[in-house]
Design goal:
Number of domains: 1
CATH topology: Rossmann fold
CATH class: Alpha Beta
CATH architecture: 3-Layer(aba) Sandwich
Number of strands: 10
Order of helices and strands: EHEHEEHEHEEHEHEHE
Structural class: alpha/beta
Distance between the termini: 14 Å
Largest sheet: 7 strands, parallel
Strand order of the largest sheet: 1-10-9-6-2-3-5
Radius of gyration: 17 Å
Bound molecules: fructose -6-phosphate
Helix content: 25-40%
Length: about 250
């Protein structure tokens, strides 16, 4: 595990983008795992800049997103598909046919999860997976207590998550109660992973994930067992770490 601490969100985003761009230049048909949320937005902005100014091409890339809400169509402005489209896909030359975001409207959710796993395998596995971390140490929608060997599946959202999300919807009925998420076992099979975090509200989670014991109560701590993991964080998210790491 290589922990890289940067002075600002901007620098940290550029550092992560450098790793992605390097892998993409070496393997144009990279299988890239993507995350939503506020953390990777700077990374996506930098990749868009590299695409526009440096000719970084995503034309042969296949993408797999970590998760999606159940019950939201792709056109809903709170769906993760919509997020990816608005924050990355529409600005780069990725082939729409190679984009994978779990389908929250699938009729057979279990069958869809199985298909998602098989599709990852069929493409030779994820080469590089981008991850954010929740304040409680979750990765994707794998909340504390999730099995460390879990695969892509349906998860019930915690009451807290449902409440937190309510502000983005017109009524409580509209707020998704379930999601599809890659499992921790699925994420661990990616050949490389980059875990990103910024701001002080992630400092406790980062400390537990990096310096605490590996436990399902901090799902992100499993990254300690990964053979090729990068933790790219800003000074604030690193503020509770006690060991010396590369700046
Ligand atoms: C999203 C995801 C989540 C987020 C995490 C952090 O695809 O997998 O686990 O990475 O909740 O969210 P932000 O970046 O908004 O703090």
């Amino acid at each position: 595990m290589l922990v890289i601490i940067k002075n600002s969100y901007d620098e940290m985003s550029k550092e992560a983008a450098k790793i992605v761009a390097d892998r993409l230049r070496k393997k144009p048909n990279l299988v890239l795992g993507l995350a939503t949320g506020s953390t990777p937005i700077g990374l996506y902005k930098e990749l868009i800049r590299m695409h526009k100014e440096e000719g970084l091409s995503f034309a042969k890339v296949t993408t797999f997103n970590l998760d999606e809400y159940i019950g939201l169509p792709r056109t809903h402005d709170q769906s993760y598909f919509y997020f990816m489209w608005e924050n990355l896909f529409k600005y780069i030359d990725v082939d729409r046919r190679y984009i994978h975001v779990p389908d929250g409207m699938a009729n057979d959710i279990d069958g869809h999860c199985e298909w998602y796993e098989n599709e990852i395998k069929h493409l030779g596995g994820i080469d590089l997976q981008i991850l954010g971390i929740g304040g409680n140490g979750h990765i994707a929608f794998n909340e504390p207590g999730s099995s460390l060997g879990s695969r892509t599946r349906i998860k019930t959202l915690t009451e807290q998550t449902v409440k937190d999300n309510a502000r983005f919807f017109k009524s409580m009925e509209e707020v998704p109660k379930f999601a599809i998420t890659m499992g921790i076992g699925t994420i661990m099979e990616a050949k490389e992973v980059i875990l990103m975090a910024n701001k002080t509200n992630k400092a406790d989670a980062i400390k537990s994930a990096i310096e605490g014991p590996v436990t399902h109560m901090t799902p992100a701590s499993i990254i300690q067992m990964h053979r090729k993991a990068y933790v790219v964080i800003d000074k604030e998210a690193a503020s509770k770490l006690t060991h010396q790491f590369r700046g």
